[in-house]
Amino acid sequence: DLGNGATGGGTGTVIHSEGGKSLVLTNAHVVGNATTCTVTFPNGKSYPGRCSARDRVKDLAVVYIDNAKVKFPYALLADKVPARGEHCWHVGYPQGVGPHEREGVIQAEQQRGNCLVLCASTPINGGDSGGSLFDDQGRLIGVPGWDGLGRNMCGAIHLTEIKEFVHAHQC
Questions:
Q1: Which of 12, 37, 118, 140 has the fewest CB atoms inside 10 Å of its own CB, making it the most exposed?
Q2: With a threshold of 0.70, does the pTM exceed it?
Q3: Where residue 140 falls among pLDDT bands split at 50, 70, 90?
Q4: b or e along 41-77 (b: 16 or more beta carbons within 10 Å of the residue's beta carbon)?
């Protein structure tokens, strides 16, 4: 639920949950122009969210959840991206069903317009956008959302772009 009667779907990753506030990182195209949304977790519980920052060029957004009673598990950002050929894990909710985990390997880094994209050998499907690309240590290295890279390929917003976005918006 994207507020104002609009609906949509995608995936997000909690990147912070302290002091009664939680931040969910997703793609800007997942939240669109919404200012409010409903965030539903794998256990079926839903919480009201506010779209607090977005960058349409980098296709990143943060949804703020204010809930002093709940501390959600959250993903840590990796220090660096694994090298080409190293393993990675893509987690998402294709067609709203999941979570689904897919193992792959890092294939390349590509510049797509004004955004650095990490290419991995995992397929991306509708509903996976905004999800997570993790390294072998379970640290976030990318946000899937780019298709058109070829069959069974995932294009994810690169860790460098994520760190710049999070820093710029003081997330």
A1: 140
A2: yes
A3: very high
A4: eeeeeebebebbbbbeebbbbbbbbebeeeeeebbee
